Predict the 3D structure of the following.
Amino acid sequence: MAKAASLMTDTTFTSRLLGSAWPGHFNRPTAEAMYENIKKVGLPQWSEEDQILAKALQRELKVPVKGLVTKIQELRPPRVQQEDTGGEGQNVGPTGGGSDDIGDVSWNVPTVTLRFPSNIPGGPGHNWANGIAMATPIAHKGVIAGAKVQAMTMLDILLHPELVEKAWDYFRNIQTKDVKYTSFLRPDDKPAIWLNKKTMDEYRPRMKTMYYDPSKYSTYLEQLGIKYPTVKTADTGGSADSKP
């Protein structure tokens, strides 16, 4: 539009791209194979302390107090759109998710993403509340479970050529049958690293003082001097340690 306007008015313009991300479309055969591995690995065994912390945070956030997940969710199929003629419908793409360059990757090669239970449900996302679990056994248990699923799925891909064939068939004949990927990035576009430079210059030195030092401490909680789980006394009826 800017180019057309400049041509009509005999003027010039400049522009810069700050960011770009295609919506992700992930590979159904690979996702189904990965889901079978999720069921084999199962969810982590949460301790009483894990659940105490989770429920305490949920109370603090005023969200449903359900604790940590104890049941694997059903695999969610692609959104289905019914034909105007009353047919059975067709796959029309993904149902949602985060926006980043994994979306661009997914339109160039069969791709799946894995979400593993390393956080406390109910957090608002991109918020301090979503960072609490990261130094706790909750995150460690979840990432171990996720790593097992990822490794098993890679073995499936390497050992079962038919899975690779199904993945490419879906990619070529369903996902990209009518929609072809074209990058929004131009050859001379540069990453917009200046956008966060001021913030990073201010806070990175302060963050470094909080980095985990495994040569001195067994866990990050030990380094911080936090007894696990540290919650308000009212959350556990006074049985847990209470700190401000």
Q: What stands out?
A: Strands lie at 80-81, 90-91.
